[in-house]
Amino acid sequence: MKKIDWYIIKKFLATFFFALLLIMSIAVIFDVSEKIEDFIEKQAPLMEIIFGYYLYFIPYFANLFSALFVFIAVVFFTSRMAYNNEIIAILGSGVSFRRLMYPYFIAALFLAIFSFSLTNYILPPANKKRLAFEERYIRHTFVNLNRNIHKQISPGNYIYMESFSVANQTGYKFSMEHFHKGLLTYKLISEFIQWDTIANKWRIVNYYIRKYNKLKETIKSGSSLDTVLSFTPKEFEKRDNIVETMSLPRLNAYISELELQGDPNIDKVKAYKYGRWAFPFSTFILTLIGVSLSSRKVRGGIGLHIGVGLGISFAYILFMQLSTNIALGTGMNLMLGVWLPNIVFAIIAILLYRQAPK
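Predicted structure:
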């Protein structure tokens, strides 16, 4: 590590955190103006707004757009170096452009590791508190809009509900089946099933039970049956953003649970998990693109570099969202769909690098 390496690393990180601070200040102002009516209407305490919401909102939002901040930082300070003839002086002293990239990638590695750790281990507990605040003061009461709900609650045991009311903790047109070695041995059909909050049990109303033993069948019916089943109403009260509150080990365990249950939304959760790995890697790609674009003088100055940089950053973020949604909607390989923006922009980065002044 030479002086020039430390100089570039300090410039990179200082510009990144300055851009982060500046943009986050603006983001908080806009967010306050958007949610001020909710805060007033639901009488949210000022201290809870500050320490129960924005204390956790800021790192969440900063990490969400960290790729944008990285690109802006690289383009801004590298353009300044180019227009102050520092890049020319460095290359003229015998330092190759490839060697010039070393400190950039060291700083990018630090930011990528920081982003990965933040997303997978530090932010989930903070997101839990942020989302709890939103549930209390911002969001409307959760309503489960799913229809024809199928779940495997344990090996060989399957349940079905036409719909589930979160407010009443009631599942309508309920049925439960048990299979043994591929054969149906038990089936329960009921009008509805309701959770008893005092006894922590399910009450099954107007039910029929059929048991099958080879060629024999027994039928039992009744008006009410209290029983313990291996699921609770909490499983039907989860918003999609519940995955934001899970660390990486908990997310892996949650995916295993969904696979056991045969949950139809499992692909969304898997795509979110793959994104946690793919997004930090974009730091290296956008750093290479940023240096390759801004290391030469162009007509239009730093403003042109920043404008192009912003356009590429937003294109990357948009491409990532579109690619993931296309993969979910078309049956495309999920991992490929999530990583496709990185692959495409890595190719662009290599082409730009080859055209950069050496």
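Summary: The chain has two domains: 3-139+265-355, 149-236.
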